[in-house]
């Protein structure tokens, strides 16, 4: 969109310069050449491209890598879940001075929380890999 306006310039007795889009007393109309505009970037044929077979090969390789990572993460998730279940099923207890046994909740939480974090990490990794796989061209 091109916009054109007449510009006027006035200099007062103190040397202050004023520009305006409407005529002002003592001002002179400026003749301004239009500013050069940038041409759109050329969509050249010089940009490297690959044929569809090469791209399909790359996509298949990437899909295989992602599938292998997904399988590995699922195995790690199963192992982490098993460790978490084992830790959760064996609560830490201590014997009080009265001879009774009590659950040591702080020790239990300290043991279980890192295992839960590991399960969460593998779950998020699986979700991320599945998202990547879903974005792959069919």
In short:
With 138 residues, the protein is an alpha+beta fold. The chain contains 2 helices and 5 strands; from the N terminus they run E-E-E-H-E-E-H. The longest helix is centred in the middle third of the chain and has 38 residues.
Descriptive overview:
This protein is of the alpha+beta class and 138 residues long. The protein has two domains: 1-32, no CATH class; 52-135. It has two helices and five strands, in the order E-E-E-H-E-E-H. It has helices at 52-89, 105-135; strands spanning 7-11, 17-20, 28-30, 93-95, 101-103. A three-stranded antiparallel β-sheet has the order 2-1-3, with no helix packed on it. Strands 4-5 form a two-stranded antiparallel ribbon. It is elongated.
What is the radius of gyration?
Answer: 36 Å
What structural class is derived from the secondary structure elements? alpha+beta
| Count of helical regions | 2
**For the residues shown, what is the average pLDDT?**
88
Strands of the widest sheet, in order across it, are 2-1-3
Could you name the key traits of this structure?
single chain; 5 strands; 2 domains; 3-stranded antiparallel beta sheet; elongated; alpha+beta; 138 residues; two-stranded antiparallel ribbon; coiled coil; 2 helices
List the helices and strands and how they pair.
Layout: E1 7-11, E2 17-20, E3 28-30, H1 52-89, E4 93-95, E5 101-103, H2 105-135
Antiparallel strand pairs: 1-2, 1-3, 4-5
């Amino acid at each position: 969109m091109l916009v054109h306006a007449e510009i006027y310039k006035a200099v007062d007795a103190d040397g202050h310069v004023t520009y305006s889009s409407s005529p002002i007393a003592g001002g002179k109309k400026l003749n301004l050449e239009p500013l050069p505009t940038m041409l759109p970037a050329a969509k050249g044929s010089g940009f490297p491209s690959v044929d569809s077979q090469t791209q399909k090969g790359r996509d298949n390789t990437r899909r295989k890598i992602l599938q292998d990572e997904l399988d590995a993460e699922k195995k790690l998730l199963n192992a982490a879940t098993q460790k978490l279940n084992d830790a959760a099923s064996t609560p830490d207890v201590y014997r009080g001075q009265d001879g009774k046994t009590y659950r040591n909740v702080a020790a239990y939480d300290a043991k279980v929380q890192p295992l839960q974090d590991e399960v969460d990490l593998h779950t998020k990794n699986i979700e991320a890999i599945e998202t990547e796989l879903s974005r792959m061209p069919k």
